[in-house]
Amino acid sequence: MEIGIDSFAAILPDPVTGQVPSATGRMAELIEEVELADRVGLEVFGIGEHHRGEFLDSAPTMILAAAAARTRQIKLTSAVTVLSAADPVRVFQEFATLDLISKGRAEIVVGRGSFVEAFPLFGFDTRDYDDLFAEKLDLLLALQESTNVTWEGRFRAPLRGQGVYPRPHTHHLPIWVGVGGTPQSFARAGALGLPLMVAIIGGGFDRFRPLVDLYREAGRRAGHDLKVLKIGIHAMGFVGETDAAARDAFFPGWAHLTASIGRERGWSPPTRQQFDAMAGPEGAFLVGDPSTVAAKMLQASDKLGGVSRITFQMSTAALDTTAMRRSIELLGNEVAPLVRGAQPTS
């Protein structure tokens, strides 16, 4: 199992003073977090894409390229690229360039996006939400296979064999599909034989098992080897010296962002009781001390029939820089060995 971190480059006000830290300082801290993750042996670091004031990740490949120059081994990926509102040619060029800078460590997780701000910002209609994604994924996969592509669709100018450069360091850029809870999305990824990244930000892991089974069955029916149908989990997570310390460090930022987004979507304000339930044995938050988190990761993998990757969305704790860095150290130095030691070697 690969273990890593996803960040949305959250920039949060101090819960006591309300003061927002500088964007420049927060960005510097984020690059240092990627460097630390690399040093402690984590396998992957992802940067999200949002176009909102709470986050600094509207240009994720820029952040990933800066991190590539200061790391040696860790894979660098999006989490996710909002492909529906992007030009697949430009996405391919940016990640191919990142792959050259990182000497083969670039990956892409593409998705439709859980926020809709990118659609009007770049001139797209949310009524075309799924059609945009399906068409653009088709083009992105074609660009992965060939330098000169002949292609035509509804939403961008056709390609008539023009060369798309640069080509990546690796022959194929790994492309994952990021999904939430839509059966169609799981089935599509399986039919295409693409690895799946499942965002599990609420409920329990077991409720996603029917959707994961749908993905695997769609892949089998399409003739894909089950070995290529990899499952990844993106989950809220944070590691502390104790369960209580981890929860106390993570809760304030999580509550602030959840409340902010909830006001837009008509959700009830989040409570500490709800948070503690999600961090408990049956919830999907990987928050606790190293042994608690490792056990829960193994439980999640078992419930989903085996997973290849788990990434922690821990950037809501970014206000406490010391706790954030310690969480990364604990994840790499203590959680990862516990998980790997419990898994079969073949």
What is the topological layout?
Elements: E1 2-7, H1 23-39, E2 44-47, H2 60-68, E3 75-78, E4 81-82, H3 88-102, E5 106-111, H4 118-121, H5 129-145, E6 148-151, E7 159-163, E8 175-179, H6 183-192, E9 196-200, H7 209-221, E10 231-239, H8 243-265, H9 272-278, E11 286-288, H10 290-303, E12 309-313, H11 321-342
Helix pairs in contact: 1-11, 2-3, 3-5, 6-7, 10-11
Model description:
The protein starts with a strand and ends with a helix. The chain has 346 residues and is an alpha/beta fold. Helix 1 links the parallel strand 1 (2-7) and strand 2. An 8-stranded parallel barrel has the order 1-2-3-5-8-9-10-12, surrounded by 8 helices. The protein has a two-stranded antiparallel ribbon with strand order 6-7. The protein is built from 11 helices and 12 strands. The chain has a single domain (2-342), classed as Luciferase-like domain (TIM Barrel), CATH 3.20.20.30. 44% of the residues lie in helices and 17% in strands. The mean pLDDT is 94. The chain is globular, with a radius of gyration of 19 Å.
